[in-house]
Fold this sequence. Notes:
The structure is a homodimer.
Chain A: E1 5-7, H1 9-22, H2 27-42, H3 51-61, E2 72-73, E3 81-85, H4 91-109, E4 111-120, H5 126-133, E5 138-142, E6 163-168, E7 176-181, H6 187-196, E8 205-206, E9 212-213, H7 216-221, E10 223-224, H8 229-245, H9 252-259, E11 267-275, H10 277-281, H11 288-301, H12 309-321, E12 323-325, H13 327-339
Parallel strand pairs in A: 3-4
Antiparallel strand pairs in A: 1-12, 2-3, 4-11, 5-6, 5-11, 6-7, 8-9, 8-10
Helix pairs in contact in A: 1-2, 1-13
Amino acid sequence: MTDDAIFTIGALHERVEAIFRKAGVNATQAGAIARVITAGERDACKSHGIYRIEGALRTIKAGKVEPGAVPELEPGSAGAIVKVDAKGGFANPAFELGLPVLAERARSCGIAALVLHDAVHFSALWAEVEALTEIGLAGIAMCPSYATVAPAGGSKPLLGTNPFAFGWPREGRPPYVFDFATSVAARGEIELHRRAGKPLPEGWAIDAEGRPTTDPQAALAGAMLTFGGHKGSAIATMIELLAGVMIGDLTSPEALAQLGTTTLYPAHGELILAFAPQAFAAGRPGNPLMRAETLFEAIMGQGARLPSQRRFTARAASERDGIRLSAMEVEQLDRFLKLGLDAV
Amino acid sequence: MTDDAIFTIGALHERVEAIFRKAGVNATQAGAIARVITAGERDACKSHGIYRIEGALRTIKAGKVEPGAVPELEPGSAGAIVKVDAKGGFANPAFELGLPVLAERARSCGIAALVLHDAVHFSALWAEVEALTEIGLAGIAMCPSYATVAPAGGSKPLLGTNPFAFGWPREGRPPYVFDFATSVAARGEIELHRRAGKPLPEGWAIDAEGRPTTDPQAALAGAMLTFGGHKGSAIATMIELLAGVMIGDLTSPEALAQLGTTTLYPAHGELILAFAPQAFAAGRPGNPLMRAETLFEAIMGQGARLPSQRRFTARAASERDGIRLSAMEVEQLDRFLKLGLDAV
């Protein structure tokens, strides 16, 4: 039995990257994937840390992602749109390729959009909006998923958990960032209730007949509900339209139909909007970054938290003390590294 | 006593326009205001119809809006940003001035933003996103308000009711449009509960000490809550940042401090994003407008409604049968027209 182990951020990154290389993933993708998985673990965001490796490997093994894909910038798009074709590979290297071009367009146009096409997606969007804030931009990111959520007033899975993320840059401290599913809960949380034999809170889900249920098993056979009733349902629908239909990528029902299962990661597109605050504020009184601090102080002055604060606290601890993994987690990483795709 | 009366849409528009002209509002503003107020009444959206006239007149009388302002396009903004200075007048003519330029930029850049500065705001945002859909664009509109809503985990008014609206064009039928407050309820709904002596639903508001309350009076002295808990609070905060701080206009707490009351309409800015679906979809399989119809059919096929359907049904009836106003409403219009600002 291995003991608990402490990894530096760099050492964990190397381990994760090596696992994906062993699984036949090219260097471009493996590096980008390792960055987001390590960032999740670093921020104690366990649902998007090394937990994601197994599903990614199973998706590779099932032939549902291109391990050799090299994303490409698409030429000739309209002035404020940047398009990257992920070529059926993971979304992360496609985002990394597009980011500097998006930043340049946002600075020259004031606002710009990055579109990722044909990308297999498993990572949280906060990493992407944070990357924008690190270069002084505000950003919004959104993408479909696969159909597991019923629209308000409906009875069947149609929408995805469709995450919506926003970031605002702050000088000398972590950015203002939020990133949430537009479903009440993540599908994984329902699965956790099922394993624990615990009923779901009211309002999370409906059964296969469209009736409200607190039974996790019935919920998994039925559909999840959106957060905030018809308002959350409207936002989830907007995400299908903007980040699916409009960009010419799959909607959540199409992604599920193509994948045929909810146990692998789906392929679809993603839409990221970047705003240059200085371009918007030009000629107006006040510095937008300083004015934002006044708003944040007023929120925290009431005893309310800013979103992502827990993540940033965990990050500071990881940077200082390293990342602790359990013996079981270390064994699993060792097994992935040794066996590659035979481990899943 | 006057009887109920039926107005054609054109006749009601003329009446409302004449009321604002009588109140000293210039032709540019009066026409644009009459268009949105008549549209609200036409769509049986009574909260944004002629009900809004009195508050607008009181705001003029209090000297909190410039009745003679002529909005101006600001020169020299970045390529995909259009800025209109409302000059302290109402927001509506500023939007009308910016719309064709926004559309042109969205078509050439793929995405573009319209910023309205220093505008007094009382109208629903659906009219604006609908105007974008009428010319084949998708759009998002958002603005702050004045501080009446507590952030999640907080205890005091800080955020506005901060509306968020989205529109998607449909060929040969009304667009997909939603427009909602990011507060659980509108402030007017709490006032209606107070007048009716009815308790509020749980989760709408907190009292002045930050404790949950169902007492409308205590809620009006305290703060409203956001829809969807911390997720709605995050969206409302995003709107303060993008449509207040970033564009160099007032945030909701600043707008309330400047106005000094919640009984008049506040001055702040607004942000409208326009997307050209054909530019985003270029080179990809499928026509985005047709693919969207597949999504809408799937939603309606479950028995769920699309947002704004009730409004469009009412609109069709108004276009066919005219708009019916009660005797009391007609008398009030007559009084506004006769007395101008002396009526309020």
